[in-house]
Amino acid sequence: MESLTTTIIEAIALLFSGDAELWNIIGISFRISTTAIFIAMIPAVLIGFTLAYADFPGRRLLISFFNTLLAVPAVVVGLTLYIVLSRQGPLGEWKLLFTQSAMVLGQIALSFPILVAMSHTAFQSADIRAWDTARTLSRNPLHALLIIMREVRFGLLGALLAGYGRIIAEVGASMMLGGNILNSTRNIPTAIAMETSKGDFSQGIALGIILVSMAFVLTMSLQYMQGKGRLTHD
Amino acid sequence: MTKHIPVHIQFSQINKRYAKKHFGFFTDNKTSKVILKDADLELKGGECILLTGKNGSGKSTLLRILAGLLKPDSATINTGLETLSWKKANKLIRQQVMYLYQEPYMFDGSVTRNLEYALGGTERGKQSPNKIKQALKWANLEHRASTSAKCLSGGERQRVALAQAWLKQPSVLLLDEPTANMDEESRRATEDLLCKFKDIGTALLIASHDVNHFHHTMDKRLLLKGGLIMEIYDEGVDKNKDDEKSSHDNISIFPSKKQLKSNI
Ligand SMILES: Nc1ncnc2c1ncn2[C@@H]1O[C@H](COP(=O)(O)OP(=O)(O)OP(=O)(O)O)[C@@H](O)[C@H]1O
Ligand SMILES: [Mg+2]
Q1: DSSP alpha helices (H): ranges in A54-152?
Q2: Identity of the residue in A57, A139, A151 whose CB atom sits nearest the CB atom of B108
Q3: CA end-to-end span of chain A, whole Å?
Q4: A with B: how many residue pairs have Cβ under 8 Å apart?
Q5: What are the domain boundaries of chain B?
Q6: Residue B166: pLDDT above 90?
Q7: Is the pTM of the predicted complex or chain greater than 0.90?
Q8: Which ligand ends up closest to the CA of B57?
Q9: pLDDT value, residue B121
C-alpha cells in the first residue's frame, strides 16, 4: 500500500480531473437520494403534524411505532424490500429489483421514520398557543398549516437534513436493492465499499471527501440559519 | 369596516372537564376536574358580553371551546339554521369566530408579517400594504413595523392581536383579558375599537376580572361560577368591586332541566 498522503493527493487529483465515471457515481447518488427525500417529505411532515396536534386514540402508540422504526437497521429494510420486489415477491411483476427505482423505494423507507419523528418533534416544540393562534388567525386550514410550518421551519429543515444524511451514505439497502451496477445503480457508498475491497483507495477517498464536505456544508448552513432564528427567540 | 350579517349562535349544555388519560384512551376519574357543567351561552351580532369570574373559574376554557379550538366533552350549537354538535359545527365556527389569547402569541418575524397572517389569501392583494399600515397606526406601532414581534412587550402584543382582529373582522370576537397589560391610553383606544366592532355587527365576548373597564361597551354581564353561567343585572357597576358577593342577590340562574333534576 502506498503512503496515505500520496493516496489522498491522488484522490484530490481524481476529483479535479473531471473523471467521468467518478462524477457519474456522484450524480447517481444525489439524484436518487434527492428524489427519495422529496417523495417522502410531504407525507412524512403531514404525519408528523397530525401526531403533534390531532387528538385521536392510539396517537401515542403511533408515535412509539415510528420511533421504533428509527432503530430498524438499514439492511433489514433492504432485505424486506428485496423480498417484496424479488421475482417471487408480491411486487415481483414490477421488475424493479436492481434498478434506481428500487433504490429510491429503499431510501424512502429509510428516511420516512426519521422525517416523521423529527418533524413531529419540531411541531411539538412550538409554543402550545402557536397552532391555536394560527388556526384562529387564518381563514382556512391550509393557511394555518403554512403559518405553523414556517414557525417551526428550522426543526423541519433539521429533519430533512437528518433524513438526507441517513440515506446518502447508506450502503446496505443500496447494495441489496440496486446491485451496484456501473452507470446505473452504483452510488457513492456502494462504490466506496467496492473500491475498498479491491484495494483501490483513491477513488474511495475521493468519494468520501465529497460525502464529508456535503455533510459539512449542510450542517453549517443549518447552524447558520438556526443562529439567525435564535436571535428572535423569546 | 364593512357591516356583518349579524350572527346569532346559541351554545347549550357545554360540558368540560380536564382529566388525565391513560394511554390516551381511559379517562382517570379521580384526577378529573369539572370546569363547565351544562353551561349555556348566546352570542348575538352587535352585542357585547362581559364574562367575569375568579381566577381558574374556566373563562379561558369556555372561550377556547366557543372558538372551536378546544374540544368540550359535549355541547350543542344552534346557528339559527340548524342544531349541530360541537364537532360538526367546528369548521363553520372557526371561519366566523376569532379568539384572542390572554397572552397573545407572536409568530417569528416582523410585526408586519404577523399582521399579514390575518389577511386571507384573497385579500393579500394590492390593498394589503395599505390595510396593514392602517392597522399599525391603530396599534400605535408604526415605528416598530419591522422589528421582531417576539420582542414586543405584553401590552404591545395585545395591541398587535387587536390589530389582527381588525384586519380579519370576524363575525364573532372572543377576547381574553384584552387590556390586562395595557396603559390607560391603549385601554381607551381598545374600548373605542370594540365600539366600532359592535357598530358593524360583531358579536363580542370579553373575559375580564375588571368590570369597570368595559362599562361603556358592554350590554350584558355574565358570571362564570361553579361551572355555570349566570347573568348579573346591576346598574351601578362601578360600585361593585367584589362582584361575587355584592351582586349575589341579583343573580339569575337559568338551570337546564338536567340540572334541576340533579338538584332535587
Ligand atoms: N390543559 C389543562 N389541563 C388541566 N387543567 C387545566 C388545563 N387548562 C386549564 N386547566 C385548569 O382549569 C381551570 C380553569 O382554567 P382557565 O384558564 O379556563 O381559567 P380562567 O377563568 O381563564 O382563569 P384566569 O382568570 O386566571 O385567566 C384552572 O383551574 C386550570 O388549572
Ligand atoms: Mg384565563
Answers
A1: 59-70, 74-85, 100-125, 128-137, 141-151
A2: A151
A3: 57
A4: 70
A5: 8-263
A6: yes
A7: no
A8: 1
A9: 61
Which of B21, B65, B90, B94 to mutate to probe the A interface, most A CBs <10 Å?
A: B94
C-beta B61 within 6 A of ligand 1: yes
Which ligand 1 atom sits closest to the C-alpha of B54?
25
The distance of B104 to chain A (nearest Cα, Å) reads 8
One-letter amino acid identity for A102?
A: A
What does the pLDDT look like over B52-91, one tens digit per residue?
A: 999 999 999 999 999 999 999 999 999 888 899 998 888 8
Strand-pairing partners, residue B52, are B223
Closest by CA position to A160, among listed A33, A73, A75: A33
For chain A, 234 residues long, the average pLDDT of each consecutive 10-residue run is 83 90 94 97 97 90 94 93 93 93 96 96 94 92 94 93 92 94 94 92 92 89 71 44
Please report which helix (H) or strand (E) contains residue B71, including its range: none
B158: its cell numbers: 395585545
Does residue B60 line the site of ligand 1, with CB under 6 A?
A: yes
Instruction: Please tell me if the CB atom of residue B56 comes closer than 6 angstroms to any atom of ligand 1.
Output: yes
CA distance B167 to A60: 38
Q: Which residues of B touch A60 (CB under 8 A)?
A: 23-24
SS3 B63: helix
What is the distance in A from the centroid of ligand 2 to the CA of B114? 23
Count, in order, helices (H) and strands (E) of chain B. Answer: 8, 13
Half-sphere exposure of A29 (CA within 13 A, CB side): 28
Residue nearest to atom 9 of ligand 1 (CA): B61
* pLDDT tens digits along B192-244: 899 989 999 999 999 988 777 788 888 999 999 999 999 988 655 444 444 44
Say if the ipTM goes beyond 0.90. Answer: no
User: Could you identify the atom of ligand 1 that is nearest to the CA of residue B63?
Assistant: 18
Could you tell me where the DSSP H helices lie in chain B? 59-66, 86-96, 111-116, 128-139, 154-168, 184-199, 243-246, 257-263
Is B8-263 a domain of CATH 3.40.50.300? yes
Residues of A in contact with B64 (CB under 8 A): 132
> Which CATH number is A2-233's, of 1.10.3720.10, 3.40.50.720, 3.30.870.10, 1.20.1600.10?
1.10.3720.10
> C-alpha distances in angstroms, A46 versus A27, A51, A53, B68?
29, 9, 11, 21
